[in-house]
Amino acid sequence: RRFPANQQFIGEWEGGEQDCPELREGRPWTFEVDYFGLAGIIYCMLYGKYIEAASVTLVSDAEGKRYKLATPLKRYWQQDIWTRLFDLLLNPGLVRADGSLPLCEEMGALREEMEGWLQANCNRASNTLRGLLKKVYLSVLRAQDSR
Fold first, then answer.
1. Backbone angles phi, psi at 123, to 5 degrees
2. Residue 97: its pLDDT value, please?
3. CA dist 78 → 75, 113, 118, 121 (Å)
4. How far is Cα 81 from Cα 110, in angstroms, rounded to an integer?
5. Residue 68 DSSP label
6. pTM of the model
7. CB-based burial, 76-100: b 16+ in 10 Å, e otherwise
8. Residues 7, 116: Cα–Cα separation, whole Å
9. Are 120 and 114 in contact (CB under 8 A)?
């Protein structure tokens, strides 16, 4: 709110492998760096390594050019939800017809969908979400008691 509407920035430094394409290519950016940063955190949590320029590829499809992950998602990772999340984070300017940002409503809708999936599937398989959270909770309690 401190900047005028439609304020854009241009990096006066050379972008690194971990930076969003707009910054690396010297194009104006606003929220793109934040969305790419969030994509990088999620990528690191899923794949166990940092996102780099080589982790993302520019492809042409029926909707035009867009960035996608170069590394495929594992088949048991709920690919539909993760693919839509990465598409939103890597291509924020393509989400709305006018290209406006931020994407608070879209991010909120995806978050609700993920929460709904977790609630509906928390008892699947032997290592249930509920069971894993209970193990983490008990581990924290034991660590506190040992102090």
1. -105, 15
2. 92
3. 7, 12, 11, 11
4. 8
5. E
6. 0.79
7. eebeeebeebbbbbbbbbebeeeee
8. 35
9. no
